[in-house]
Amino acid sequence: MNFINSKFIVTIFFNEFPILAMVMAQREEILSINIIRLIFGSFFLLISLFIFVKSALDYSRYISKKKEKIFVSQGLFLRVRFPLSLCVILFNIGLTILFFSLLISILTFLFVFVWVVVCRSVDNELYKKFGFKYYDYKKKVPMILPLKISLPYKIFETQK
User: Where are the domains of the chain?
Assistant: First the structure.
């Protein structure tokens, strides 16, 4: 199986994860959601909806102006390189809070790990495609979380 097909399968599986989470939640859990979980879970779901709409608008607005192949670095893309990934991760965390069970928690943790690996792969492809322009953008903008975390050493540094 080539790399593109494997990424496609992973993407399809994890895009369906929220539906799987709701199906796997026990019926009693759905009926007995307490107010704290409802508030926090809804907060994550609403934030993910906002990020989805804002990043889609930024992407479509910027891409429609350009004819050549470019990467978007405006709007939310100034804060994170993969805002749609952040959106999907926050959405799954919100569902995990709402329909908490051990299985859903494990699947969410696995989902986040695999999603980060896929984003790293896309990062490398974009670096190959756009070169040092993307490398400079990558150094300035965090991958998924809009936080600057300084580590005493470099982890997962892309080869120049």
Answer: 3-140
Signed CA dihedral, 43, 47, 48, 49: sign only: positive
Helix (H) or strand (E) holding 97: helix 83-98
pLDDT in tens, 21-79: 555 554 445 555 678 888 888 899 899 888 888 888 877 776 666 666 667 777 777 78
Q: What is the value of pTM for the model shown?
A: 0.66
In 2-159, the DSSP E strands lie at: none
- What's the burial of 97, exposed, middle or buried (CB within 10 Å: 0-12/13-18/19+)? buried
CA distance 143 to 155: 13
Tens digits of residue pLDDT in 109-146: 888 888 888 888 888 888 888 888 888 888 888 877 76
| C-alpha closest to that of 112 among 143, 134, 139 | 143
Using the structure block, give the residue that is written with the tokens 């779901």.
45
Distance CA 103, CA 59 (A): 35
Q: For 18, phi and psi rounded to 5 degrees?
A: -60, -40
Angle at 8 between CA 156 and CA 118, to 5 degrees: 15
Name residue, tokens 């979380």.
145
